[in-house]
């Protein structure tokens, strides 16, 4: 075959090119190692099972459920790679292995997003943004990244497609990896900003320091892996990183295994409370149970304005500073709560599925319209024009007006 210029992912290379790693007919470019995939598949399986046991033991499903999923994705990728090592011409196995192994690290990153969100719920008064928006924003980015990677990788490694089609797939993967690196750098900057605030406030205890250290180390490992993949795909199919399998085992397999094992040894469930309503008081020692810091906006609004810039500019978030209030007031927030609501204002999952537009319920559209109409009628009934001018009636009217004002405040809080 000629050695002339070829597209990025063209396999037009003679045996002996790139230090002799190319194997004629191999969709992997080289002959994959037949031992290492078994070892890593077994290690990821063990780590994933331990994650499941730990998550069940600490009852931390809401925070760490992605950790066993990421380990099992990596395991599946190595199983496909092991099978493909015995059939180096099967492009289907290459596609499965590539997609699984490219999908696992973003899921590990997603576990970090949930972890930082729980940390910010634990010390809400130092959070740079609403804790819930860490998850919704960065997991949203991850879904976009996973879609681009899945689409691009399946096209990129499919040797049955034309060179142009494969290069389009490579460009999609490059874009996804760059987006992942930028998103992850922004995520780490939020964690660092919180860390500096916690140190300055004097609430950085041993548990919090252990969780943040684990978060930083795992984030660094994921980021290094991401840079490796970016360089690999920009070099192309015949580049040094792709054509030499040893780089894959060091910068992909080993780094991701370290991330998984790291969370096995320092599982977040050991250090953080199960409920996001439990927060650390400003003395840095006492843990209190609050009403929770809920984002009660409509879900469509939270999608288009995940950081709630409107709330930041209008000061709406500041009115949720329950950590500066008397804990005895928390009980009043649960008054009037109906089956489709919780004390924090967050609807259960089944109500979100049955009523995605939030039309019904104690804070639904119909309820808000009814309250507004009822308040208007009550205000008209107690206005000076409709009440006889007498001292006793006037006092009663003021009492009624004050009662309705109090109801409005309670409803706004609940």
Automatic annotation (TrEMBL):
Keywords: Membrane, Transmembrane, Transmembrane helix
Places the protein is found: Membrane
Protein's recorded name: RTA1 domain protein
Residue span of region Disordered: 380-414
Organism: Cryomyces antarcticus
Compositionally biased tracts (Polar residues): 380-395
Residues annotated as transmembrane: 35-53, 65-81, 93-115, 135-157, 177-196, 208-231, 246-266
PANTHER family, alphabetized: PROTEIN RTA1-RELATED, RTA1 DOMAIN PROTEIN-RELATED
First and last residue of the signal peptide: none
Membrane topology: Multi-pass membrane protein
Biased composition (Basic and acidic residues): 400-414
Pfam families linked to this entry: RTA1
